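re the bet — no i am not wrong, look at it urself. input seq straight from the record:
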Amino acid sequence: MRKAKSLTLAAAGLLALTAGAAIPAAAETDFKGKTINIYAGGQPGGGVDVFTRTFAPHYARSIPGNPTIIVKNMYGAGGIQGVTHAYVNGTKDGTTLTTMAGGPIQTAAFDNRKLQYDIRKFEWVGSLNVGESMCFVWNASKFKSVQDMMSGQMTVSATGASSNSTLLPIMINRTVGTKMKPIAGYGGAGSVLAVERQEVDGRCLTLDSLKTTHPDWISQKKVRFLMDVALKPNEELPKGTPHVMDLIKDPKDKLAMKLFLLPSEITIPYGLAPGTTADAVKTHRAAFMRAVKDAKYLADAKRRKQDIKPKSGEEVAAIIDELFTAPPDVIQRVKDYIKDNSGVGRCKGDLCRKKSSKKKKSS
């Protein structure tokens, strides 16, 4: 009797497991007739914006109910504005998403100031790419090598004072010995054009952003790549481009740079507002993975020179957790290196994000 009873219970358990396996698909939230807002921490025409607008229609097709997706650019403070808005005002039904470059994540991990968001509380859906940064100048620039970057001050355009475009050059200065001076206040697209117009000497950003927005600059060799700033050497850069890890001599500085670059592993991540319902989170994560494998999307991305190297929501969450649980001494070293931005200049050129208008007084 006991044996028979055990078999019956085992069969019942197997049936329960079988039934449970079907629940996620059946429990997917139907977004028919709804509008999903994506608050993008990037200026129109910049890398975050272009990637997101390419992805959005394909993502909508992958979500049950084929909802309308609206991309809203909120790029103030290096993308922190959009993240904060989604965190504070986001709905919990799966209709609020945010995406960004690395700045808001790095700020949360390494900046001691009080923020209005906790990056760890977002419900992560997935990320589109791995950010492989580099520093470049216009082909006519007097800066031709890393040694030149160490010998003389090289201005680089940046967005917010706390954005990755500012913090990365500062971090390179402290670990490698270069003398880059970030000039903050540009929009994402304007910061790149500032190099062409020679308002600044150069820019540090992801290679994919440059490929997406100005592919002809690369094919026509209008720019010169001075440094590869990624966790692993980027094979797409010209052979012989110095890799940042080879330039850092202090082992502790190497660890600090590796930690600083960790958020680049989840470039253009998508997060749902904290407290989003479990079913909506499951729906978005499943839809995201369907979308990034969709042949139409991949073909569209390829046409726009966008390399897609996706990570799942679970993988994004794990990297965020790794970032915040790193050895305290390594975290502190990064904080010490990037906390002093007193040498950061302010944008004064035509491409600045905020222009002062003298005509308003006379009109």
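see?? DSSP finds 17 helices and twelve strands in the chain. told u. also Confidence is low (pLDDT under 50) at residues 1-26, 355-363. so pay up
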